[in-house]
């Protein structure tokens, strides 16, 4: 299906802001720094996509990227998911979008969800969060994404992510890098969306059709 890929990613949770700052200092100047606004959506009853996926509109650098993930549970810091990522056809400055836009744009991710759950469904806006991502390339060839995430209830957390085709080999390389930097980190136990749901505070579902 167009736009589909298999995402395999290692995620490690940094203990606190001090560890985050220490890792950034150890890695040096980032290749890029991006502020991302993540808007999340689901069916009004929360059944779709459930807790093993995500429907996300990400705003960054003046553009909007629409992503659907299926099967994105975290096991010992490793995520394997079906991912559909496509440019959003609507206006980035109009959030949340109308419900019709999710089904009129020809998005492969929405059609995959409809196929998995048996039919098309209404869409509800769940809320948004802010993520600041620093991207580094190490001398050893790793491309690291170091994230500081701010949730609607005012809490924050920090993690480092690494897309990989060699999970166990890259896990060893990442853990050695963290150890050499003197950074305390543990394999992540939840996706950003799952953490967002637990911390959305007063934000709730807004029906959209």
Feature tags:
Hypothetical Protein Pfu-838710-001; 23% helix; 8-stranded antiparallel beta barrel; globular; 209 residues
Task: Report on the architecture of this protein.
There is one protein chain. The chain has 209 residues and is α+β, with helices and mostly antiparallel strands. It has one domain (4-207): Beta Barrel (Hypothetical Protein Pfu-838710-001), CATH 2.40.320.10. 23% of the residues lie in helices and 41% in strands. The chain has five helices and eleven strands, in the order βαβββββααβββαβαβ. It has helices at residues 17-27, 99-104, 108-117, 167-180, 192-198, and strands at residues 4-14, 32-42, 53-60, 63-70, 74-75, 78-87, 124-137, 143-150, 156-163, 185-187, 206-207. Strands 1-6-4-3-2-7-8-9 form an eight-stranded antiparallel barrel, surrounded by four helices. The radius of gyration is 17 Å and the shape is globular. The two termini are 26 Å apart. The model has no long low-confidence stretch (mean pLDDT 92).
Task: Characterize this entry briefly.
The chain has an eight-stranded antiparallel barrel, surrounded by four helices. It is built from five helices and eleven strands, in the order βαβββββααβββαβαβ.
Helix-strand layout with pairing:
Layout: E1 4-14, H1 17-27, E2 32-42, E3 53-60, E4 63-70, E5 74-75, E6 78-87, H2 99-104, H3 108-117, E7 124-137, E8 143-150, E9 156-163, H4 167-180, E10 185-187, H5 192-198, E11 206-207
Antiparallel strand pairs: 1-6, 1-9, 1-10, 2-3, 2-7, 3-4, 4-6, 5-6, 7-8, 7-11, 8-9
